[in-house]
Design goal:
two-stranded antiparallel sheet, eight-stranded parallel β-barrel, globular, alpha/beta
Length: about 300
């Protein structure tokens, strides 16, 4: 299965102190931000800081860089400066078409060839932040083999919809569902939007429980205190872990016996149940790594 992305922590690319400490909080991934968090007159210095951070700090988690949109005056410069550092993921904001993804993918491929990187080693992730993006989300999700995730940019989308954010998130329900179905169809991860009211922990917990129930793989977060909350909610129970182990033991036994039928306690086990069991154990292993401070 794919790498876990329960939490993707935004880190302003123009803040040296935050770049230095970001890897200490246990997020599954960091999003080093060159876009909204960085003013126009700081774009150049932020690129320099982010590239140096990737090359010198050696973060023990997945690293994504959110570039400016490729058709702004800054997007191509972001890629030219950042790609030699070989981040794990390039996150493209405000994606509205498959063409947005393909344009970035072509630039990434040329950079891999130029610097001798393994082909396909730099992945792509798109953020959907407009009505146009939601309407095209299926094509965006399937736009290129480098795509590993799509994320919801809720704040920008709400503005585009000309509404406000409510307590229950009703205004984002269609967008979340559309994005999730697109991700599942493309077999990539679905990442939920940030929750900006940092002090409202109860509302944050409700939202995380809701997006987990919907089927999201994780959530973008903007503060370290949100990380353990998400991880705790996504953690499987001991009963779920025990059942998952039993399923995989039965599955392995059937493979050894070259049997086409997998059964557990008299019930047939099909591939979706096996896949869910693998996912539960992956989450359980991630919890164990969190507890001992090994975040990779």
């Amino acid at each position: 299965m794919n790498k876990l992305r329960r939490t993707m922590l935004y880190v302003p690319g123009n803040n040296p102190a935050n770049l230095q400490s970001a890897g200490l909080y246990g997020a599954d991934a960091l999003i080093l931000d060159l876009e909204d968090a960085v003013s126009i007159n700081e774009k150049d210095s932020a690129r320099h800081l982010v590239r140096n951070a990737i090359m010198s700090l050696r973060y023990e988690c997945e690293i994504a860089v959110r570039i400016n949109h490729i058709r702004t005056p800054f997007g191509r410069a972001d890629l030219d400066y950042i790609l030699p550092a070989k981040p794990n993921i390039i996150r493209l904001p405000k994606a509205e078409s498959a063409g947005d993804i393909q344009e970035v993918a072509d630039i990434v491929q040329k950079a891999e060839e130029r610097y001798g990187f393994k082909p396909g080693s730099i992945k792509l992730m798109a953020a959907i932040e407009s009505a146009e993006g939601i309407l095209n989300v299926r094509e965006i999700a399937k736009a290129h083999p480098r795509m590993v995730a799509i994320a919801l940019g809720g704040e920008d989308l709400i503005a585009d919809l000309k509404t406000t954010r409510s307590g229950d998130g009703l205004e984002l329900h269609y967008a979340r569902s559309a994005l999730l179905f697109a991700a599942r169809s493309a077999k990539i991860d679905a990442i939920d939007s940030v929750f900006s009211r940092i002090e409202d922990e109860e509302a944050f917990i409700r939202e995380v429980k809701m997006i987990k129930q919907l089927g999201f793989d994780g959530k973008s977060v903007i503060h370290p205190r949100q990380i353990p909350i998400v991880h705790q909610i996504f953690a499987p129970t001991q009963q779920e872990i025990a059942y998952a182990r039993s399923v995989l033991e039965a599955y392995d036994d059937a493979l050894k016996r070259k049997s086409g039928v997998v059964a557990l306690n008299g019930n047939l086990i099909d591939q979706p149940i096996v896949t869910r069991a693998q996912r539960v154990l992956a989450y359980a292993e991630a919890v164990t790594r969190d507890e001992r401070g090994d975040f990779q």
